[in-house]
Amino acid sequence: MSRRRTFGPKKKLALLLSAATVAGGGAFVMATTSNASPPAATTKSAADSTVCQGLATALGNNERFIAGQRANPDAQSEARIANREAVIAQIKVQQEASGCTVGESAQGSQPAQPEQPAPSQPAAGGQAGQDGQAGGGAAAGEQVCNGSTVTLSGEAGAPAASSNQFPAGTRLKVTNLDNDKSTTVEVTSVSGSCVLLNNAAFEQVREPGKFLIRRALIEKVG
């Protein structure tokens, strides 16, 4: 005949407390796990992504343009600045959507063009480029802005460009050497780089998902 094992009142109380402790510890672990904050989303800088670099360059170019207008204002400066501030706001939206650092600016990312001494007298029919540079006097069909990268201004409208070297009315041909696509556009305004394409012109030569043309051939054609 088997004997059933029995526990005294004190032993039963000890066992109940032990079970409650284990259960409580498990509940604490589960609560800690469920309340843990999700890992923060990481953002990419211009150094991490070609897309982010292109957007940072576009933002920097527009900031440089605004700074130039404020340093040397004219009757149209206020309207130009308001337009570029709207462009900067749109670029920041694109930065956020692309996972880039919002507001990151790469003002120095455009390679500086070598300064050339201004001629004592301009050639007949010629016109000096912006900021005293001689880009505006380049012959038609001549390659210009060697080594420059090309990005977009964020401005709408028909295909066009802005430049700090060529006066309004100059026609430039921009070729993306990475996909052999070209566009010929007219300079319509001033910017902080050799060639800055508006949205429509940039769409004609861009690679999908990229906001910067690293290998560009730029020619003055008229």
From TrEMBL:
**Protein name (Swiss-Prot/TrEMBL):** Secreted protein
Give the stretches traversing the membrane.
Answer: none
Query: Which stretches does UniProt call biased (Gly residues)?
Result: 126-139
* Keywords for the protein's UniProt record, in alphabetical order: Signal
Species of origin: Streptomyces prasinosporus
Q: Which domain of life is it from?
A: Bacteria
Cite the InterPro entries for this sequence. RlpA-like_sf
**Which segments carry the region annotation Disordered?**
99-141
Q: Which residues form the signal peptide?
A: 1-36
